[in-house]
Amino acid sequence: LYFESQQSSADFRFYIENHTRNPDDLSRKQVRIYQLYSRTTGKHVQILGKKVNANGDDGGKYALLIVETETFGSHVRIKGKESEHYICMNEKGKIVGMPDGRKQECVFIEEFLENNYTALVSAKYKGWYLGFNRKGRPKKGSRTTQRQQEVHFMKRQPKGKVNPVQEFRFTTVTKRTRRARRLKSNAKRN
């Protein structure tokens, strides 16, 4: 009995690996629209035709991204809504915008990090991440690692649209309330 369960889980793992490596056209694709907030620039990834950078404004037309997800795994293709170009990584690790996103160079795997950021690693060039320097310029894939802030992104809803799951309101702590607490604690000591 133990041998059979081990056999079936191995077969299932093999099936998933093969399916994510060569997705077929019959698989249902999910399409979402969001912005990718870059941790290093404090701005959004934008696709300006062949050029890609991380200097987009919140709600900017080039910062709106159409993300196509395959059924299995977290393989994604990222397309600019306005420019209709896909984010791709060539064999030199350079980030470019291409009109045809069917190539393996345009597929990225989402990695969800412990710090609530997302990293996007190339499906073709293992260990090469989508990343941008402080000026918003693309970083070569061969010079990136998962731990670098340059490859950390946060998915954000387009400006004006609120995700119903994230509709919580938090109270902010201002300098005045901090000072008031300090004054109260000093008064108690005296």
Automatic annotation (TrEMBL):
Q: Which SMART domains does this UniProt record tie to the protein?
A: FGF
A molecular-function term among this protein's GO annotations: growth factor activity
Cite the Gene3D superfamilies for this sequence. Answer: 2.80.10.50
Top-rank taxon: Eukaryota
Alphabetical UniProt keywords = Growth factor, Secreted, Signal
Gene Ontology cellular component list: extracellular region
Cellular compartments annotated:
Secreted
An example Gene Ontology biological process: negative regulation of endodermal cell fate specification
Q: Name one Pfam family in it.
A: FGF
Could you tell me which InterPro entries the record lists for this protein? Fibroblast_GF_fam, IL1/FGF
Q: Which protein family is named in the record?
A: Belongs to the heparin-binding growth factors family.
PANTHER family (alphabetical) = FIBROBLAST GROWTH FACTOR (PTHR11486)
What is the protein name stated in its UniProt record?
Answer: Fibroblast growth factor
Q: Which organism is it from?
A: Oreochromis niloticus
